[in-house]
Amino acid sequence: MIGRSLICHNNSKTTDTQLNDNDCIPFEVQSILVKGITVVAPEKKIGFAAFEELIKINTEWVAFVPYGFAKKGGTDIRYNLEWQWWGERLEGIESCIKTAKSKQLKVMLKPQIYIGGGWIGDMDFTSEQEWKTWESNYTTFVMDYVKIAAKYDVDLLCIGTEMNISVTKRAAYWDNLIQEVRKIYKGKITYSANWDHYQKIPFWGKLDYIGLSSYFPLSDSKTPTIEELSKAWQPVIKNLKNISEKNNKRILFTEYGYMSVDGCAGKAWEIEKVVHNLSINQLAQANAYEALWTNMSKQTFWAGGFLWKWFPDGMGHEGYPEKDYTPQNKKSLEVISRWFKNPKT
Fold this sequence. Notes:
The chain contains 9 helices and 13 strands. By secondary structure, it is an alpha/beta fold. It has one domain (32-340): TIM Barrel. Helix 3 (128-151) runs parallel beside helix 5 (171-184), helix 6 crosses helix 8 (282-296) and helix 8 (282-296) packs parallel to helix 9. It starts with a strand and ends with a helix. The relative contact order is 0.13. Residues 1-31 have low confidence and may be disordered.
């Protein structure tokens, strides 16, 4: 069910009866949010049962993340390799998409780059030739998945993730990439900006959603209350609303999540480094998810998002699923299931 309101340049709202107001631009408002989960690429082939587990908790969307691998400072991208897990290779991605869609799940395809010993957000080059070589290789990588997205009528495509320097320093490349993608793929397109960089993206207007990795640090408390977290969300929501209205685009959390450990609503990137030293804290995780949905589901600019992450058939974890982001077998599973069932409560 889709309704329409207007976002005006003066940030006020009007109604459909004022469509002749030249200061206002139509803004699509969906009454149903994206209730999605990122499915970790499995080592081995999975079938219907893995997706039925997601449907049981009222999931309506799944995201698949095929990785390409690069070296710090290098321009090459390696992917679809024999040693990669089945779920990361092209055959696995295609199989997962077909199976998910056969279960009436909508799909986001999110090809992503992993840099050993570094982070894609810090990637930079000193010469024009290095940039052009990287961009040529990245285009080849992305377009392989664009073709898959077009072939299987994938619902949403994310063309990049957290490339802080590239998207601001090489904006012309991204403009051209978006044009090339749209020649082949006719579905919705987004980009996943890091939580501290989404206000600096120059091409939001050319996409269908403002996408971002929502790892806003909200509280350093071991077990923050829902009330405490709700208060911390308010300035974040204000900034998100402003960028949404400025670009006349809804905001999609291409990633969001909390580990089930003490202090999980703090700085996620630091928590990940010391996770083995932290105590399990399912209540902290459940409170964080509860606060996110309680506050964000009220916002008409929010399009929902994809929880990070779910291990299909228990595969793909790094040895500590009891502390990882997944809500599986944890208090937060009930929280997510409830909000997915009725996101307006």
